[in-house]
Amino acid sequence: MKLPKQVLDFYLNSSIHVALSCYALVRITFHVFHIQYDEAMALFVFFGTIVGYNFVKYDALVRVKKKPIGNQLKIIAFLSFISLVLVGYYFFHLKRITQIVSVAIFAITALYTLPFFPNRRNARNWAGVKIYIVALCWVGATLVLPYINAEIPFTGNFFIKCIQRFVLVFVLILVFEILDLANDDPHLKTVPQTIGVKRTKILGFSLLIPFWILGILTFTFHDLIINLIMVVTLMLFILFANPNRSKYYTSFWVESVPIFWWLMIVFL
C-alpha cells in the first residue's frame, strides 16, 4: 500500500487534483452557456491552476522558511515549470480581453502569496479575507474567462451563474476551514474561528439552498436534478466535517465535487 499512497500524495501535493476540479468547472461553464469546447481555454485554466496553487503552497517553504528541497518537491517544481511553459503557450491562443483579465487574476494570486507592501503580510494572512479572494479567483478562472473568451454578451444569466459559482466555492472552502481549524493561525479569523464550527455548518447549509433555488431560473430539469444531488452531497460533507478528519477528506474527496458534478452532466 505504500506505493499507491505515495502516488496519491504526489497527485494531491502537485495540485493535479485541484487543477482537474477547475478544469471540470470550465467544462461545466461550456455546458451551461452552450459554448463549443475550447481546448486552449480549458487547458490554460488546468495548467494555470497547477502553477498558481504550487506557487502559493511552496513559495513560503522555499523562499521564507528555507526548507531543504526533497525529491518530491523537485519533481513538483519541474512539473510546475512545464505547466508554466504550457500556460504561456495557451495564453497566446486566447482573446485579448481574456488575456487582460487572466493577468488580473494572476495579480490577485500573486498578492495572495507575496507581501507587496512594506511591513505588511501577504493577502493570504489578512484577517477574514482569504476565503473571498480564493472564491473570486475560482469564479474568475472557471467562469468569467471562458465566458468572455467566447465573446458572449453579458446577461442576467451570467451574473446569476457567477453568484452560484462563488457560493459553491465558498462552501467548499468552509469545509477546508473546519478541518484546518486546529492548525490555522488565530489571526487569520477564518469563518470557523470567528463563529464556531456549528454556526459555520449552518452557514454552509443556508448558502446551498439559494444555490439550488437560483438554478430554477436558468437550468434545465436535468441539470436541476444533478444540482440537487450536488447540494445533498455537499451538505453531507459539511455535516461530517470536523478538525479530526484525515487530510484526504478535503484534499481529495471535497475537491472531487466539481469533477463528480461534471461527470454527472456528461453521463446522466
UniProtKB/TrEMBL annotation:
Q: Which UniProt keywords apply?
A: Membrane, Transmembrane, Transmembrane helix
Task: Spell out where the chain crosses the membrane.
Answer: 12-34, 40-61, 73-91, 97-117, 129-148, 163-182, 202-219, 225-241, 248-267
Source domain of life: Bacteria
Protein name per UniProt? Prenyltransferase
Tell me the organism. Answer: Flavobacterium circumlabens
